[in-house]
Write a structure and sequence with these properties.
Length: 372
Amino acid sequence: MNTSLPSHAPVVLDIAGTALNDADRRRITHPLVGGLILFARNWESRAQLCALTDEIKSLRPDLLICVDHEGGRVQRFKTDGFTHLPAMRALGELWMNDGRGAKAVAGSGAMRAIDAATATGYVLAAELRACGVDLSFTPVLDLDHGPSGVIGNRAFHRDARVVSMLARALMHGLLQAGMANCGKHFPGHGHVAADSHVDAPVDKRSLKQILADDAQPYGWLRTVLTSVMPAHVLYPKVDKQRPAGFSRVWLQDILRGRLGFDGLIFSDDLSMEGARRVADIDDGRLLSYAEAAVLALRAGCDMVLLCNQSVGDGQAVDELLDDLTATAALDLWQVSPVSEARRAALLPRSPSLDWHSLMHSPAYLAALERLP
């Protein structure tokens, strides 16, 4: 086991199965690894998940254990007591429902939706934390423009104001359960139809249009957002060559400079098609994972995700770690104590309830009653 604390641990990787193998143990103790993301394949039961996270923390107490657990179709753990959480669109629909006829009360739907969003955030975070998970990559701040199938009902609403209010309420619920948050996908993925998992989407709107609409939640929520994940989308009227996650214009000039965000920036998954083709590098050839990681880190990401590459022999994960070590030695990307402090700030600060205690917690039971 490597017991030295890294000066910057920017890599978030995954594991293949429901328990650690020797290769997993070697990788998660690597000094460049700062996080682990779990998927449905890593789930069998609550007891198994707790045993897995316990072993991970025994090896690396500072490792950030993450998951995509939004609700709706993006929820990794759905059985053995986990609550089936609503898609975020359900909260937006509740916002719009003030009742009918003489009993309608203007604005009552909005108030019920805010209460339900807080409850959703609390249940989501409390259940995950009871099983040793530190962070869910939520909330989705994309606007529901309609054409994006990959976003769809994951978005709260079309109106940036409604999205911001419901996201703030959901983040309040996360915070009550001791969990940080991650707004995604900056500056907005909802306007493009292409799925960046398998394609390289292009959004041709101007910076003025984007800032006046999709990017507004990031400015309005900058005091409560603890982390942000940019989109693997190209916005050629802002940066002609590079998708947002590789663009200093988007990450440094706009997100940090213009919008004032000072939390952690995660890259989206570097194995996605939209992450590995950059127009100004060798005519858009397919980049290696390490090349993509260096581009993201140099652009302003604090941490980079490489997902679904541990399955099989995991050679891609080992190559990424080896190559990043080599490029750091060559000063091709800067080890950042500031980034490491941002990573540490996402770790929970308070102890969590165990599952049995949570099931009898008045706050948890009250939150369940308020879910939409």
